[in-house]
Design a protein that fits this description.
The N and C termini lie far apart (67 Å). This protein is elongated. By secondary structure, it is mainly α. α1 packs across α4, α5 packs across α6 and α5 runs antiparallel to α9. The N terminus is likely disordered.
Length: 199
Amino acid sequence: MPAASSQPRRPRSGNRRDEAARLAVLHAADDLLVEHGFGALTVEAIARRAGVAKQTIYRWWPSKVEILLDTLIEDSDKRLPVPTEQPTAESIRGYLRAFARFLTRDPAGKVLLALMAEAQHHPDTAKRFHQRYLGPRRGLERDMLARGTDAGEVSPELGPDATLDALVGPIVYCALTGSSVPRGLVDTLVENLLRPRAD
């Protein structure tokens, strides 16, 4: 076995991965999920599409769920970053619009929806999904909302988690049911949840 590097590694990641092969596996998993759905997705099919040995994949990832989580994390970081600048109602509105596009138009959004659905039936998937994706992203979103509130840019009446659930919940529901996100939904959510009218 090679000597451990000073860089922390994800548990059970196996030997050091060739970057081109790693990306090929992630892209193959993404494409096959969109083409055939979660149930028909297998490590064998991913290996064939990526042009790598099945044993190589199992050295790097313990399951197809972990492959999809890696795909989702990388794609979300690139295409759906949580705003890090001083948040305003408009930048939060822009983030929610981007989230709606991600879920309904981006192949990576299909990965997110598939993992959400799978997490309802498999506790281990739910645990890993929360540990690796939902928890860290919710932390960033909560911080975005808190900074906007502290700066007086938004003033939600609900607590941070309830506000975030109320903002993203209707968008996720539309995507999960195959509906388009209605025009004006994000505007209504932002106006009603982040800019409450004074009595």
